[in-house]
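**User:** My hope is that you can spare some time for a protein that puzzles me. As I understand it, each token names a local backbone shape. I would be glad if you read both lines and explained how they fit together. The protein I mean follows directly.
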Amino acid sequence: MKRFWIRRGLRFFAFALLFVTLAGFVIMSLWNALLPTIVDVSAITFWQALGLLVLSRILFGGFRGGGWGGYGRMRHGYWRQRMAERWEKLTPEQRQQMRQQWESRCGRGHYGRRQQTDPQQEEPRTTAI
């Protein structure tokens, strides 16, 4: 299972790197083909084109994913709402089974747990909320 996620992460990184490289070359080519003759500015390098890409993303698009192609729904809790609806439809036995599957996959961390002290015990113990 871990190998799947590692391969998936590497594939995502490769496609992101390819996309950024391609975008840089497209920006550089368009700038160098159009603007020196129209506005009388100098040609730019690949790294300057990437800088322009980042600058335009900061000024006009931000880094949150924008609202194109359904990304805006994710910002507004779309997936959280869908998961909550599915969770409500599960029976208590199915919920317990799901929790056990999550613990076996993700480990038993202290997320969502608070430390409580028992008067008979000296050491604090963790309990689920």
